[in-house]
Design a protein that fits this description.
Radius of gyration: 20 Å
Distance between the termini: 48 Å
Helix content: 25-40%
Number of domains: 1
CATH class: Alpha Beta
CATH architecture: Alpha-Beta Horseshoe
Number of helices: 11
Strand content: 15-25%
CATH topology: pyruvate-formate lyase- activating enzyme
Shape: globular
Structural class: alpha/beta
Strand order of the largest sheet: 4-5-8-9-10-11-12-15
Number of strands: 15
Largest sheet: 8 strands, mixed
């Protein structure tokens, strides 16, 4: 086991390949679980430098000069550990609860709320005690019976991008297939779904793909799968019988947004097979940011074209007294109406779960 190797400068992701970290840490207890041992063997086979740490909170010596370079290296760093807190956070409006199987993401979306919620710890964490996590989910389901309890698996990460390493999504899918009153949901910008296609899901898992206009994907979503790859993956999961959905987020007001989002919906309609449109859902989320997020994004992506002019925004109070800057009502209403009309024009049987 190596403890001294320094990773090379993070290589640019090839979008047809799955995520391979440059450096891996193991926390205490991770190797006491079969999944931890499985990941350890994979890391050794890949020849990736690995280190032991007493806690992810003590990872302070990542290589790189300056915050920007350290941030890029952290996004290529994987921490394998045990999820100790089994109290699930609420996840409105997507689901009742967030089910924690990973934290952090390998994507470089400029606008992502993980920029601030993860703060100085942008490395990626995966949890090996999935059986304990599923036991906790079962308890939440029992508490709410006979109501259906939905769990969102992508609140703090993009688990599809990590599935080739962990296999955790497949475990959750097959667990939830057996729960009469439980449902699983997750959203992704990645196309690595092949290992999920033959999972026993019983229609209890809805897979959603995050999509956007060509302008937004080009300028603000580096290191994610291309739009065409996401749609191809969406067709695959629909063919495998999964309920399908799309999240259009963040919806961004820019010169030409009507043409861009109109083209997006038309492309979806053109590319999706008929079976993919049955029971289709959409979730619409306008761009928002906090002052803290603006400061972090400006440092980490100094050349970003992302508009974050507070003077052009409306302040909206959120949970726990935390507020965000959203579009003023006139713009928000225009975005909502335009997208809703285009969606129902091309997908008359679809449901729009919410606009926020």
């Amino acid at each position: 086991m190596s403890t001294t190797e320094t990773p090379q400068r993070p290589r640019k992701s090839k979008l047809h390949e799955s995520f391979v970290p440059e450096l891996v840490y193991f926390e205490p207890g991770a190797l006491d679980y079969p999944k931890g041992q499985q990941i350890y063997r994979w890391v050794e086979e890949q020849g990736i430098p690995l280190r032991m740490t007493t806690s992810h909170n003590r990872i302070t010596n990542l290589p790189g000069e300056g915050e920007l370079e350290q941030y890029k290296i952290a996004k290529r760093t994987l921490v394998v550990g045990v999820r100790k807190t089994l109290k699930f956070d609420q996840s409105k409006p997507s689901a009742e609860y967030a089910i924690p199987i990973a934290t952090g993401c390998m994507g470089h979306c400029h606008y992502c709320y993980l920029q601030t919620t993860l703060g100085a710890k942008p490395y990626i964490r995966v949890y090996v005690n999935t059986n304990e996590i599923m036991d906790a989910a079962r308890d939440y389901i029992e508490e709410r019976k006979p109501e259906i309890t939905r769990f969102e698996a992508a609140c703090t990460s993009d688990p599809v991008g990590l599935e080739p390493i962990t296999g955790s999504l497949r475990e959750l899918i097959e667990f939830m297939a057996q729960q009469e009153h439980g449902r699983l949901r997750f959203v992704t910008k990645f196309h690595h779904v092949d290992s999920l296609l033959d999972a026993r899901h019983n229609g209890h898992t809805r897979i959603r793909f995050s999509v956007n206009s060509a302008y937004v994907i080009k300028h603000f979503e580096p290191a994610t799968s291309r739009f065409e790859q996401r749609i191809e993956a969406a067709a695959k999961v629909a063919h495998a019988g999964y309920p399908l959905g799309f999240i259009i987020a963040p919806i961004i007001w820019y010169d030409g947004w009507e043409e861009g989002y109109g083209e997006l919906i038309a492309k979806l309609a053109e590319a999706l097979p008929e079976e993919a449109t049955h029971g289709l859902t959409f979730e619409l989320i306008q761009h928002r940011f906090t002052k803290t997020a603006k400061n972090v994004i400006d440092r980490r992506y100094p050349k970003t074209k992302l508009e974050m002019d507070i003077e052009k925004r409306k302040y909206k109070w959120g949970r726990w007294g935390q507020g965000k800057y959203v579009y003023p009502d006139e713009k928000a209403d225009a975005l909502r109406m335009f997208l809703s009309e285009r969606i129902f024009e091309h997908f008359p049987q679809a449901e729009i779960d919410y606009f926020t």
